[in-house]
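Long-time lurker, first post. I've been practising inverse folding by hand and with some scripts of my own, and I keep getting stuck on stretches where the structure tokens seem ambiguous. Below is the full token string for one chain I'm working on. Before anyone asks, I'm not after the true native sequence, just a reasonable design that respects the backbone. If someone could post their per-position residues I'd love to compare against what I wrote down in my notebook.
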């Protein structure tokens, strides 16, 4: 349940924004059937995450990481973008949003049609793998049958380096170009919209404050409280699908000169 007046304020602010920046977390994909990280009972929490250092150092850790990854992938195979993923893609395509920054690794923003040059994946993408030494992309469809037959973690086809899912693990360095682009968008935003993030994973959770310090209004849409709620101009507490229901980018026509007011 989302209070109707809050939903209306949210929609008005989004349609009035000229330099919207969208920031999404795992909560956005739960309505697509992908479990988030921190909601109690999450399968991501069933095992202690394997830190980057351990993955690089130990063949056994790599085997375990790949084993778990394929089990998780199966649990949400076939997940489709939600209506909100599609709405956000429209905001970007229409130039209403200057960028979409996601912590998600599920590829659903791409599938919803978000243009690649306006999308930053802060924590990488779990739908393919890369060689940690030479950067060559490897497809899961090729890796998986070999792993399942031999029980050995994949090595690079080109350089024999260690191959890892193209996500950022605990202890792994953040992708520099992605962070730089996200920081720049945060500085340019007139409205910074957070959707479905607990805002406890750093440095990603710094970005709303960067935007705020540079003059943006901050809006947070999430089912539960976050540490940045007190810094927000608007907090919409409730289900994401309900918060955006009834909103369409087409409604924005003719509202170009309206300032964002919250
Ligand atoms: P999180 O799990 O820490 O927080 C998700 C938040 O969304 C929670 O506060 C939860 O209450 C809320 N939420 C869940 N479903 C909701 C709904 N339908 N409506 C409203 N609120 C809802 O997620 P995070 O902040 O993104 O941090 C998790 C980290 O784990 C990220 O770095 C991400 O890379 C990774 N992760 C990604 C995925 C994915 O790609 N879908 C899934 C799990 C974890
Ligand atoms: Zn390689």
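-- Answer (accepted) --
I ran through it position by position. Result:
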């Amino acid at each position: 349940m989302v209070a109707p007046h809050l939903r209306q304020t949210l929609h008005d602010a989004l349609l009035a924004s000229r330099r919207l920046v969208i920031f999404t977390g795992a909560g956005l994909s739960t309505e697509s059937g992908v479990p988030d990280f921190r909601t109690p009972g999450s399968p991501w929490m069933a095992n202690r995450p394997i830190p980057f250092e351990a993955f690089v150092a130990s063949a056994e850790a790599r085997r375990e990481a790949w084993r778990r990854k394929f089990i998780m992938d199966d649990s949400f195979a076939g997940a489709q973008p939600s209506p909100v993923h599609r709405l956000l893609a429209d905001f970007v395509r229409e130039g209403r949003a200057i960028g979409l920054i996601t912590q998600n690794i599920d590829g659903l923003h791409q599938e919803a049609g978000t243009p690649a040059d306006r999308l930053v994946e802060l924590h990488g993408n779990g739908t393919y793998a890369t060689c940690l030494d030479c950067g060559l992309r490897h497809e899961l469809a090729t890796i998986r049958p070999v792993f399942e037959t031999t029980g050995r973690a994949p090595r690079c086809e080109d350089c024999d380096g260690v191959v890892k899912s193209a996500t950022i693990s605990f202890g792994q360095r953040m992708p520099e170009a992605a962070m730089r682009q996200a920081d720049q968008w945060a500085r340019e935003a007139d409205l910074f919209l957070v959707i479905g993030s607990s805002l406890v994973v750093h440095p990603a959770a710094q970005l709303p404050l960067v935007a705020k310090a540079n003059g943006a209004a901050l809006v947070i849409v999430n089912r539960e409280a976050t540490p940045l709620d007190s810094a927000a101009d608007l907090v919409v507490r409730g289900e994401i699908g309900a918060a955006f229901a009834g909103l369409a980018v087409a409604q924005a026509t003719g509202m170009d000169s309206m300032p964002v007011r919250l």
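A couple of notes from the structure itself: The chain has a mean pLDDT of 94. The radius of gyration is 19 Å. Happy to go over any region you disagree with.
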